[in-house]
């Protein structure tokens, strides 16, 4: 016997309905008659099969009709446990510095001028990597560089560090990749050439159109804007580097940070980026967190219009935290670690790395010494184990709030629900996701 997946979400359109299944992460457009029958209180799978044989088969293929014995929630929990404790990829995030060459008003990081990772920390990091990759626990390592601005002192810190880790991986037949969260204002021809060796991908942020950006993302020393340098860097990177080979993510995620004045004048930014290779550049729209309480009807309309404009130019767009995954946030896993420039150990890059967020330290031999109980508490948490998350049909692409927020709140609360990561209704969001996937499939 078959049953309907709990995670089917109907999205009504003009003349038809889109069915989204968050467990399989698939969409299907169906007639209104099919949608009505599928969503009726009493569902008879055999009668449905006779009435709609082709649709019935498609619904099965896409995980929207499943075997009656399947317990989807149990599978979610098992997938979560595997990702949390048995991930075959080590994700190591490194802060070469907590200093930055720019000054953006909303940045949560407390920049520490002149700080940088010394050889006394680089060597223990390499020792740590050599130790943890010496057995069969991990098949790959993914090295993220964050800060601060990780391209500061790139040739003396991030580059030799990445090269050293890559050399260890090659000696142990482990896969290697890197990820740079960078403002890209320091990107040079020399750095781009070195990047070719590192199997990288990037997150680069723009603060809207030129005038807006140049009032927000400015050089710390001169106060001048950085729009031109960053737009140029994105173009050169997309021309010179291939997509990396570790995931379906493109080479560059171009994050557009916006507040209530940004989206009104987005056309000039779109003109400056519309010639980018759409297979290498994805757009992520992210509201500046200090302005989340200011979302209103006008802002939702502007965001929807921004989606349409970018979509019509052929860009893939993301917004919010929803994607198919086994765990809410890398920090929830025991295979994720942050090593700061000073050798202190942390777990959340969404918070300033300081004494309050420190959870351990790395010694000269490359051993991690945990100095508080927060990591143990974090690993014991199942943040979606609450009534709100367990009944939510978006659970498989959300997996609950991150452990950092959960620990800070002392449990689940509406304020940390991931539904607040988007500024538009969920059905509108899913409707645009369906259109983007349909476009991409037809382009291929």
The CATH top-level class label of the largest domain:
Alpha Beta
Strand pairing plus helix content: what structural class? alpha/beta
Note the total helix count. Answer: 15
Low-confidence spans: none
| Global outline | globular
CATH-defined architecture of the largest domain? Alpha-Beta Barrel
Biggest β-sheet: strands ordered side by side in the sheet:
14-13-12-10-9-8-6-15-16-17-18
Beta-strand share of residues = 15-25%
Provide structural commentary.
The chain folds into 2 domains: 2-70, no CATH class; 72-444, Aldolase class I (TIM Barrel, Alpha-Beta Barrel). The strands form 4 sheets. It has an 11-stranded mixed β-sheet. The chain has a 3-stranded antiparallel β-sheet with strand order 2-3-4, with helices on both faces. It contains 15 helices and 18 strands. The protein is an alpha/beta fold.
Please describe the topology of this protein.
Blueprint: E1 2-4, E2 8-12, E3 16-21, E4 26-31, H1 32-38, H2 45-51, H3 53-61, E5 65-67, H4 72-85, E6 89-94, E7 102-103, H5 119-132, E8 140-145, H6 158-172, E9 175-182, H7 189-195, E10 200-206, H8 210-216, E11 218-219, H9 227-240, E12 252-258, H10 267-273, E13 281-287, H11 297-312, E14 317-319, E15 336-339, E16 344-346, E17 360-362, E18 368-370, H12 374-380, H13 387-390, H14 403-409, H15 426-443
Parallel strand pairs: 6-8, 6-15, 8-9, 9-10, 10-12, 12-13, 13-14
Antiparallel strand pairs: 1-5, 2-3, 3-4, 7-11, 15-16, 16-17, 17-18
Helix pairs in contact: 2-3, 5-6
